[in-house]
Each structure stands twice: as C-alpha cells, then as structure tokens.
Specification:
Helix content is 39%, strand content 14%. The chain is built from 14 helices and 13 strands. It is globular. The N and C termini lie far apart (51 Å).
Amino acid sequence: MNPLLGTLHPYPFERWRLLAKDVVPSPAHRPISLGLGEPRHPTPQLIKDAIASHLAGLASYPTTLGDAGLRQAMADWVRQRYGVALDPARQLLPVIGSREALFSFAQAVVDPTWRGRPGVNLETDAPIVLCPNPFYQIYEGAALLAGARTAFANSDPARNFAADWGAVEDATWARTQLMFVCSPGNPTGAVMPLDEWKTLFELSDRHGFVIASDECYSEIYFGPEGQAPLGALDAARQLGRDDFRNLLVFTSLSKRSNVPGLRSGFVAGDAALVKSFLLYRTYHGSAMSPVVQAASEAAWRDEAHVVENRAQYRRKFAQVTPMLAGKLDVRLPDAGFYLWAGIPSHLHGGDDVAFALGLLAQYNVTVLPGSLLARPSRGVNPGAGRIRLALVAETAECVEAAERILAYIAKIS
C-alpha cells in the first residue's frame, strides 16, 4: 500500500467521536447537532423534477468534459454572478462536488518527481502546499497524498479572521506549488478583499504556484441582495488578469441549492489548468452522470431558490447570533452557515474541547471544537478556544440549541 496513507490525520469528526466516546448525553434533552456542516433545507422541487425526467440518461456513459448545455449554464451563471465571461469549452469543467475536485487537483498539480533527484533533502526540498488555518481537512490530505509538505497561514481575529499570508516566510513561498484559499472561509465566514487577492496574485507571479480558490459558501451571505461576496474570478478581472493565469476556482451546488447528495459542482479559470485537469480526470474516472448533469443545469439556471435559501439563513442567523453574542465572542460572519464562537476564559479556562464535552453531557447539543479544525503553527493553534456552530437545521431547532448553550453557560459560570 501507498506509505503516504500513513501520513493522513484523523478527520475532525473522527477525533471528536473519540473524545466524546465516554460521554453520556443528557437523556432529558433530545439530541441537537450543530457539528456537521451538512445543508438541511429542503431540496428544490425543480431539481427533483429534472432528475425524474432524465432517468433515460442512466443508459449512457457520460464524458468527462460534460454536456455542452451544462457547461453553457455554468458559464452563464458566472457571467450573471461575477460579470466574468468564460469560454465554456476551455475554461470550465464539471466536477463531482468540490471535495473530490479539490483533492484530485492537488494530485494533478504537485510535481512528484522531486524525490528522485540527486542529493534531495526530504525536509528542505519537498514541494509545499500552503493552506489557511483553520482549514477544510481535504486540503491537507490532498497535499500529503501528493507527496508534498503542508504549511499554514494562521487566521487573525483582529483582521476579521483573515489568513495572515504576510507571516509566511520567503523560503516557504519559494517551495510552494499549490495554495488553497477558502473565501468565504470555513469555519470563519471571512471574505477576502480585493487588495488581498492582489497580493496573492503578485506572489503567484513571482513564485509560480497555482491558486485553488474554494468558494462553495459564496451564495450564503448576509449583506443586501446584489452585494454578494467577491470571488477570485471577479478579483482577477478587476485586476486585469483576464487569462486567470495560475488560478482555478471551485464551486458547488451542495450549499447553494441544498443538494449535498447530488455531488455536483464545477471548476473554472486558467484554460491551461483546465486542459491539464481534464486530462487527469479522464483517467481518474470522474465523469458526471447524465442525470446529475440535467439536474445541475436546472439548478444553475435558477436563482429564485437560491434567494429563498439565503433568506432562510438570514432569518435564522438574525435570531441566533444576538442570543449568543452577549455570552460568547461571536458576531455575524461575512458569509457561510457557521458561527465561529470564542469561549471566554472564565468558562473552562477557554478550553473549546472541555466546553463542547460539557455541553454534550449536560444539554445534548453537539458543537465542533475549533482546535480540531486547525493545526499548531507558529506556536499556536488558531482554532483553540473557539467552537464551530453549523446553523443548518430549521430555525426553531437552532434557537433551541442556542437556548441550551445559554443555559449551560449560566450553569457553569
């Protein structure tokens, strides 16, 4: 077996399961989970109808490039959303959800031949994949199985939890081959501003690394309609980078359209990267089912269900956030469906794991300790002392969870 499998870390939910294995949740309360970021709003009927009316597609092998109609629908959405014109034949590619695409892209980008070079030093010559911290653990797993080392840029609470790219050493930038960016961020909800994109693009030009921008939370935001979060393609366009060189954006229908089981998204950007990624995927065996393609085209061509989905999240966050803001260090995020809440020092000494275990035991509410979503870097774990609350359930359930959290805080204060 591939020895690099041994370098993988347990997933955060597996680590939490082990930490909580001896906890007996309060039998007086029904279980409520704010731990898993799985959309739970109803799937739009138009997507279900598209699946039902295209079942004949099950009799056909799909192509990796995907149907021209689907790619055109994706390109039309990008133009409508970002004002960016893409060639659907060269700058777009359907993927089986952003998760598999993020992972497989690292395998296509990272150069594995470095190990065979004369005089190679495993510690100083290995390619680097740079990640924000905290982060989506697929980034790290993809890097390690590609034979790279990981490096991290810690989030800075004083800067709206923006990753501190300025703290990354020049020697690290020089070895970086791939950089993962998540905007809006998981778990922080922070959106990268244009000046930060400018800095990253300049660094990419200087050092030659590829930027993979994970934007799966882009359509859940709390500003007014028409003031959606900035995306990497739009940032590149505004900065005169119309070729999107060394940039690939990853997006998905899972959160936007409440179809996490559909496994559908797309990548877009640099035509040269799309061409190489298509070649990789042809062998990888990741063509999208014709049935899923039809449902995806219907979803990308409709915005009404997206606006309603966003409205549900706005109503939910408008109720829950002020409930918790007086007792936890938490505020409305830029975007996404998480609250990234700090534990005050007088509650379990600010220990996020202890707080989460106590909450589960006494009130049967599951939250995810922030320290499990990050790695120690530069002497700190930037997720420590925080919990991630996924407000994905119906409003009443999220409000009940918030009430139990407040009751727990009152009990241990």
